[in-house]
Amino acid sequence: MKPFIEVTKPKQTMLLLVTFIVAYIVASDNINLIHFVISFSAVALAISGTTAINMVFDYDIDKIMRRTSVRPLPSGRLDKKTCLLYGFTLLVIGIIIGYVINPLFAYLLFLGFFIDILIYTILLKRKTPLSIIIGGIAGAIPSLAGWVAACGYISLEGILLASIVFLWIPSHIWYLAMYYYEDFKKAKIPAMPIVAGMQKTSWMIVLSASAMLVVTASTAFFLSFNVYLMILISMIAIYFIVKSLKFAINPSKDNAMHMFKLANITLFALYMAIFLSRVIV
Asked: Which reaction is recorded as catalysed by this protein (predicted)?
């Protein structure tokens, strides 16, 4: 049973589900608990299924990389056919449940799979460092799906909220690639730190984080947050920018894992602060 849980990357999946939950709550006028649970189940299944399918296509590079060699497939605890069937089963069930909520919601779940697996993982990940742009779109879809599940349509506010995730993705991927530089190089994955170097990539992250601040502030403005929450959200983003700036001035592999963890905490903190906008009147 454990390998089936591991191939869904529970920690990563839970972080993406947080973005869905917050977007759903922010977009809702009145929350229907049954509707929320059904929507949540659809997204959780779709993300888990997509992640499991991704494990199949990354099997060969996971065997090479020390960090991923202990995953269920490369370690032999789960075979590829079983994992693929498992992933597609979760994905299809998730999309079908999503269609019950509304067709646009189901379409977004399918789009997340299509972009993440076919475009990012299969076509671009091993060919260009710019694949992160496509990966960022896939990562932002759970948030947008939360908005659509709640109100049934895509709006500027929903796009801005999802864009926070899109602009966060480079820090999530690139700091990890810096720490596991040798693994990525050995597996011949052209992540930006491998192609452009650690320092240039670090400055790209600073730019991305700065853009994230602008988008976060814009989200708060369009959603009419009170001034105290606007300050809180801005301080969270600014703190991450300052830390990213210090790292960019003196980048090191040893500190890259700390920055990777900080990036994850930052996204969670931003979305929790946005969640407070619907709790605190």
From this structure: heme b + (2E,6E)-farnesyl diphosphate + H2O = Fe(II)-heme o + diphosphate
Q: Which tokens hold the place of 118?
A: 């076919």
Q: Do 87 and 59 contact (CB within 8 A), yes or no?
A: no
From CA 227, how far away is CA 168, in angstroms rounded?
24
Describe the chain by its helix, strand, coil percentages, rounded to 5. Answer: 80, 0, 20
* Rounded Cα distance, 239 and 266, in Å: 9
Give kind and range of the element (H or E) at residue 166.
helix 156-179
Among 138, 162, 214, 168, residue whose Cα is nearest residue 26: 162
pTM of the model: 0.94
Radius of gyration of the chain (CA): 19
Number of H helices, E strands in the chain: 13, 0
- Top-ranked range on mean pLDDT: pick from 81-85, 131-135, 252-256: 81-85
pLDDT of residue 204 exceeding 70 = yes
pLDDT recorded at residue 30 = 86
Q: Could you tell me the pLDDT band of residue 181, with boundaries at 50, 70 and 90?
A: very high
